[in-house]
Amino acid sequence: MKIKVLLVDDHLVVLRGLRFFLQTQSDIEIVGQAQNGIEALKKVEELKPDIVLMDVQMPKMDGIEATKQISKNYPDVKVIILTSFSDRDSVLPAIKAGALGYQLKDVEPDVLAETIKAAMEGNRTFHQQVTNQLISHVTKEAETDKGIQILTPREREVLYHITLGQSNKEIAAELHVTEKTVKTHITSILGKMQLQDRTQAALFAIKNNWFD
């Protein structure tokens, strides 16, 4: 039985190229195409494809929102993102929306075919550049989590009050310690975080959601 594929992209040249290659695959059948997310949802309802090859940036409804709705309303339909964007702000929302694979448009045709077949078996496949992005993101998150762990409980308290915009005097009164003790904690915090001043420390903590 052939794998039924729906192509979704707002560039006709891309659609023609995909159709030209995939039609040469004996176990893949192109059942239709769409040029935006709204059309894609209608085609999924009408054609019941196994796989949707989905672009990200399209008019009317982008590929992320379309993927989210397909994943919610048609859980048996598997979406593979096929786009030019490998940045984290494109990759992570697509994965969260339910995309089973993420390939870039420079992917080798044979690799794309294997990605489609892998998705049919429920396996995720990502372009190497995308994989590198994800690894980098996870590594940075791990480093950020480790960062707050190097501070003592009291240093975390002091840093928390710094993020609230409190002065050394106010922090001292809040924690029932002397201003000198607060200054000592701040010096230690800056040394451990390798930052120059309390403002940088506060901004870093806020940016990384240490106290959310």
Tell me the CATH architecture of the largest domain.
3-Layer(aba) Sandwich
How many angstroms separate the termini? 51 Å
Order of helices and strands: EHEHEHEHEHEHHHHH
Please report the number of helical segments.
10
InterPro entries: CheY-like_superfamily, NreC/VraR/RcsB-like_REC, Sig_transdc_resp-reg_C-effctor, Sig_transdc_resp-reg_receiver, Tscrpt_reg_LuxR_C, WalR-like
Protein name: Response regulator transcription factor
Keywords: DNA-binding, Phosphoprotein, Transcription, Transcription regulation
GO cellular component, one term: cytoplasm
Structural commentary:
- It is found in: Cytoplasm.
- Keywords: DNA-binding, Phosphoprotein, Transcription, Transcription regulation.
- The chain has 212 residues and is of the alpha/beta class.
- It has two domains: 3-135, Response regulator (Rossmann fold, 3-Layer(aba) Sandwich); 150-207, Arc Repressor Mutant, subunit A.
- The protein has ten helices and six strands; from the N terminus they run βαβαβαβαβαβααααα.
- Strands 2-1-3-4-5-6 form a six-stranded parallel sheet, with helices on both faces.
- The longest helix is centred in the middle third of the chain and has 22 residues, at 128-149.
- It is elongated.
